[in-house]
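Below is one such protein, fold included:
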Amino acid sequence: MTTAGQGMIQMLMIQISDPYTRKSQWLSPMLDSSPDNQTTEYSKQSLESENILLKNTVAQFQKDFSRMEAHCIALELKYQNQALKSRQHDDILNETGNKAKIKKEIDAYETINIELEHSVAKLLTENKHLNKENETVKKHYKDLYDSIKITRSKTIEQTTSLLANNADLKAQIQ
């Protein structure tokens, strides 16, 4: 690892959460950047411990990221569900409004239908009355016709009788 890389690592403060104690520790890997003061074995151990710390930190970050990602997905699903419920509620309100409007129209049509039924009943009653009156008028005219027929036949009989009588009288005068 280069001296610049070691300096960067020294500047980083890494927070690791202990899942069992819920305490946070601040770790700062202390590397001695001067190669003169280090032995090869010390340098190797230091790098290994630094590598282990970084691996632990990465593993913890991955766990935290997975947990946060799951939480984020759960929140997204929750808000999508709320949005769907809201849309369904709006649809139900619109449907309820439409049902009320349709019910009002049906009531208006039923009222019109009842009024028309009353009008039809009134017209049927008037029609029966007019039919009875028509039958009475027909009977009256039939009676008049029959009377005229009888009177005509009697008049023809009388005229025939008178003509015969007149002819007899003329014959007697001559």
